Prior knowledge:
372 residues, Rossmann fold, 8-stranded mixed β-sheet, two-stranded antiparallel ribbon, 10 strands, 27% helix
Amino acid sequence: MKESTNLRLGELFCGPGGIGCGAKKSAISMKGRLFGFKHIWATDNHKDSCDTYRNNLDVTQIIHLPIEKLFLNKNKLRNMGKVDCLTFGFPCNDFSNVGEKKGFKGKFGPLYIYCVKAVNFFNPDIFIAENVSGMRSSDEGNTFKKILKELENSGNGYNLVPHLYRFEEYGIPQSRHRIIIVGIKKSINKRFKVPAPKFYDPKDYVTCGEALKGIPRDALNNEFTKNSPQVIERLKHIKPGENAFNANLPKHLRLNVKGAKISQIYRRLDSKKPSYTVTGSGGGGTHIYHWKHPRALTNRERARLQTFPDRHRFSGSKESQRRQIGMAVPVLGAKIILTSLLKTLHGVKYKSVPNNINLSEYTALEQLKLDL
């Protein structure tokens, strides 16, 4: 039997366990020993997400508390326990390319401060930060410069490798583009290498049609959404890959929308391509629609697109489940990155590519004054 050596893992903004589930699946074997991750603690301010995480992952403690309140109690922080690896995907709403783009002036943007505080407090060997691609361009790039600089200088200093991952290139059946920043303590003298994509030709991508095969009708979290007769009729006129604005709709089914027309409104999937991005919120027309049947996807179908295993049960109402699934990191994406991290730390070679975000462009301007 192989001896197991695990990195202690702590998660802020853990959600329903996309990263956690990926960590559980990540391990490498060397000279009769297994190296992986052990969940020590996880935190989130969303009760249903905490329940989902607790019910699916073996974690010593999960803390349901707003991060602002958590950091008011230093004794509680100390009692959570030391971790070797800290992960955080602080809420991305204010950095998204869709919406008001408030950045640091929004409700969620400033929460990154607590991630920096956590790195300083727990002093992990490694941290992994995740956010939307829009963070790079928020406030003409000043937001990203500030975040990178503060993360690099936290603790005793970290070597950062930021990269914009296009997850469809890694076998995830969804066009989902996210910035992942891997930080390793400078004293460890290791630099993370970005794992090479599995596919370079879009013709080879895993399609949503493949991903949604074989889901039993009685699968977990597989309840249908009730669509109105008008929505069903509208969907019948929209072809796979089309949306409510580029489809040839009869006049009575057209949307009376002025200004920007979002391409994902009543957009039907194309079964021969990856899904478009799975989101966690939105009103009418944003639920992702089946290519064949005139209906919205179920939460289990959305979870398949996020590469959650079918046994992963999501807690809460149907809308709460949708929120959790849409905000999660794809399980397979987390597994690929975390497995590569283990290989980096233990000197195991793997196929890699240069990171596509030039760190020097954002951190070289030491005298930059940011009015944020």
